[in-house]
Amino acid sequence: MRRRSDGGKDDGKVSAGGAQGGSDVATVVPPLEEAARGLERGERCTLCESPQHKTLLRAKGRTVIECRQCGLRALSPMPSLEQLVAINEETVHPFFHACLEDEASYRAYFARKLDDLQRYQSSGRLLDVGCGAGFFLDAARERGYEIAGVDLSPVPVAYARDTLGIAVTMGSLYEFQAPSDTFDVVTIFQTIEHDPDLPALSAELFRILAPGGTLMVTTPAADGFVARVMGSRWFGYRNVEHVSFFTRRSLRYTLERSGFEIASLEVEHGKGLSPKYVLNRLINYYYDHRTVIRNGLRLLHPIMPLLGKAVLFEPWAHLYAVARKPLQPSSAGDIPSHLRERTPEGAPQGAD
Ligand SMILES: [Zn+2]
Predict the structure, then answer these.
(1) How many angstroms separate the alpha carbon of residue 44 from the centre of ligand 1?
(2) Mean pLDDT in the chain?
(3) I want to staple 175 with a disulfide (CB 3.0 to 4.6 A). Which of 3, 159, 170, 171 is the partner?
């Protein structure tokens, strides 16, 4: 973790994002008052494209705005995917080894997810997007699903391939280029908050899922108990890989606007975490924040062995949604419902 001593500079990299993608916005994070004038600059919600938003908070040198129309909370300016991949490579590596130490906890959590999934879809082709080390896929394979995985990070992908023998594809979901209507199940755990283009992501998830298929999503709950208590100090805002922050309302909107039908949407407790994992993540999140907190956390390191197998968990930590792609009536023709939604008024809708 000591290699994170340049952690503060990462923020500069994230924040410089606005310069990419043709924006003429300044290449540094604007001060609060300038961010609040996003409306005047024509800045729009990355999800619903509304220009109506308010500046919600600043965390770790980044500005989070909240859309007044759909409720999505997102970074402003939004970094590009390329910049996020670079950040991912810097931050996932140390994080990954902490993940491996908590393998049993991950597996227990994913076993519960598979129990849930089997109520909706007990077999078939399953894709895990952002599959990491492949613990979920490994368990899904044991239950008889035909598995596939895709992840951007080389280190976890290598682990999934070499240690678990899972043929995970390295790259983005878009590079994966699955044919339409391919998967009976698509899972995406703790990943959508990393994607700078939510309309494209949810449309792609919808496209590759077979009609009647099941989508399972988890993401940090920006309206969860801990997030509400901690405000701008909430871990979700301080994770430099996260660019969008969801409430129940904005997650529902993200999925429904692409054509999904929500089967369930709830706030769930986080999985069990070892004290060492929690400590490592806290140092990472608060490194440049308050020296007192940072040094206090470091002082705890020597007593870690005393905590042994204690398990910590974050209450009401994640949003957890299960959604279905509707069985489309044949009269709907070839136009997917998420595209029909955008058909200009008065144009034929394909239903009659
Ligand atoms: Zn919006």
Answers:
(1) 8
(2) 79
(3) 171
